[in-house]
Design goal:
- About 50% of the residues lie in helices and about 20% in strands.
- The protein is α+β, with helices and mostly antiparallel strands.
- The longest helix is centred in the middle third of the chain and has 25 residues, at about 55-80.
């Protein structure tokens, strides 16, 4: 690592000092290095940040989209026929309907003028929170 003498404007110097004082950085040099890195080279990749590769994210995305497509396909053919849609777990929740898209995937929809309208997709907690916010 090379040493450099850099003169900062007063407002910039105060900003860096406040970041160090807050504990975000261990020293002035670390704060300036992070700022320069993010400005000139860009922020770290979210893939690196969470320890996954772009390929892993793409595979998970394709698997999720496939599960949603399959659930919607089953739903389209069986909605309104209680004995058929029991297998995909269609159930009313307030003015919404929910069905399973997989073990940890739920699809929330409404019926509008005879059409099934997808509202949101997520895990059990996401669906519960969505319903609470949009009751």
């Amino acid at each position: 690592m090379k040493r450099h003498n850099v003169t900062l404007s007063e407002p910039l110097s105060e900003t860096v000092k406040s970041q160090v004082k807050s504990g975000r950085y261990k020293d002035f040099s670390a704060a300036v290095q992070d700022a320069l890195w993010n400005y000139f080279l860009g922020p770290p990749s979210p893939f690196e940040e969470y320890g996954v590769t772009p390929e892993q994210v793409e595979r998970a995305y394709q698997k999720t989209v496939s599960a949603i497509d399959q659930a919607i396909g089953r739903l389209e053919t069986s909605f309104g026929r209680p004995h058929e849609h029991a297998g995909i777990g269609v159930r009313p929740i307030g003015h919404f309907f929910e069905c399973r898209g997989g073990l940890n995937l739920r699809v929330l929809f409404v019926v509008r003028d005879g059409d099934l309208v997808l509202v949101t997709v997520g895990n059990h907690d996401h669906i519960r929170a969505f319903i609470r916010r949009n009751a």
